[in-house]
């Protein structure tokens, strides 16, 4: 399809980071603004408006294939991003001034959990700036190597948490149209998934309850996001942000 044609669901693709969520069944979002009118005394019409807060909320639904499908997709998208960050970091570490940090990166990569605590304690002695650098390296190493992951299947809500009470949001891209031609895209920034549910429905006219239905089960995840960016993109990599 060409840019400007009517877009059908068949021409919509959803990505978490750079990873295609090929079993996305439904995605929807709504941007709400809490701006409110201010009325003067005894006036029947508002005099001015007060700027409010903006919040994006919505949900993403995937076809249920196996336990932890979306959590696995999120973890894989983060791993790809971490590898990119690692490459960028090593590019920075090529500078002679950063050889000491590079050596700490190698130490952390080969360290056990107990040894990492000892290394962070040693970094604290060097001063707060050096501790921040080493702590960032430690987090990056854990992200790349998957240190601390449990054998059981993680839930999506657990995947959003990165320890110490911190939430690690994700980005969701919604592309409209053929990616090999000019197309439109929405980027939902800083998305936090806040729920998880499964739906098994017999559907209209199926009869006999859910066991008689061939409709796929769905997993539904409500979310909120910071903002939505709108783009027009081309097949050759160019893009123009509209908002």
Please give a quick description of this structure.
The protein is an alpha+beta fold.
Cα separation of the termini: 24 Å
- Describe the main β-sheet briefly: 10 strands, antiparallel
Instruction: Indicate the CATH architecture of the largest domain.
Output: Roll
State Rg: 23 Å
CATH class of the largest domain: Mainly Beta
Give the CA-based shape. Answer: extended
Q: Roughly what is the average pLDDT, rounded to an integer?
A: 76
Quantity of strands, as a count:
12
- Number of helical segments with 4 or more residues: 5
- The CATH topology of the largest domain turns out to be Pnp Oxidase, Chain A
Spell out the key features of this protein.
12 strands; alpha+beta; Pnp Oxidase, Chain A; extended; 243 residues; 5 helices
Note the topology:
Elements lengths: L11 E5 L2 E2 L3 E10 L2 E4 L6 E5 L3 E10 L5 H25 L5 H11 L3 H14 L1 H18 L10 H5 L9 E7 L6 E11 L3 E3 L18 E8 L1 E7 L5 E3 L2
Antiparallel strand pairs: 1-2, 1-7, 3-6, 4-5, 6-10, 7-8, 8-10, 8-11, 9-10, 11-12
Helix pairs in contact: 2-4, 3-4
Description:
With 243 residues, this protein is of the alpha+beta class. The protein has two domains: 9-34 and 52-68 and 155-241, Roll (Pnp Oxidase, Chain A); 77-145, no CATH class. It is built from five helices and twelve strands. It has helices spanning 69-93, 99-109, 113-126, 128-145, 156-160; strands at 12-16, 19-20, 24-33, 36-39, 46-50, 54-63, 170-176, 183-193, 197-199, 218-225, 227-233, 239-241. The strands form two sheets. Strands 1, 2, 3, 6, 7, 8, 9, 10, 11 and 12 form a ten-stranded antiparallel β-sheet that branches. It has a two-stranded antiparallel ribbon with strand order 4-5. Strand 4 and strand 5 form a beta hairpin. It is extended and about 65 Å long. The chain starts with 11 loop residues before the first strand and ends with a strand.
């Amino acid at each position: 399809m060409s840019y400007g044609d009517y877009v059908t669901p068949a021409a919509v693709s959803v990505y978490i980071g750079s990873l295609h969520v090929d079993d996305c069944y439904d995605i929807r979002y709504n941007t709400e603004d809490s701006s409110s009118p201010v009325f003067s005394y005894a006036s029947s019409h508002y005099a001015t408006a007060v700027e409010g807060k903006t919040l994006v909320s919505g949900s993403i639904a995937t076809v249920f294939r196996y336990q932890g499908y979306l959590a696995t997709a999120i973890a894989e998208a983060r791993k790809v991003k971490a590898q990119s960050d690692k490459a960028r970091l090593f590019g920075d570490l090529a500078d002679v001034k950063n050889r000491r940090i590079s050596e700490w990166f190698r130490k952390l990569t080969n360290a056990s959990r107990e040894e990492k605590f000892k290394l962070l304690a040693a970094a604290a002695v060097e001063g707060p700036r050096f501790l921040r650098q080493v702590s960032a390296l430690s987090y990056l190493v854990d992200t790349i190597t998957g240190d601390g992951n449990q054998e059981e299947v993680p839930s999506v809500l657990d995947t959003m948490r990165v320890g110490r009470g911190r939430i690690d949001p994700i980005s969701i891209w919604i592309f409209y149209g053929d990616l090999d031609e000019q197309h439109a895209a929405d980027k939902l920034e800083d998305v936090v998934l806040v729920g998880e549910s499964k739906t098994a429905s017999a559907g209209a006219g199926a009869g006999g309850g859910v066991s008689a239905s061939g409709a796929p089960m769905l997993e539904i995840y409500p979310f909120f996001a910071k903002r939505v960016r709108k783009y027009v993109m081309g097949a050759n990599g160019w893009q123009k942000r509209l908002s």
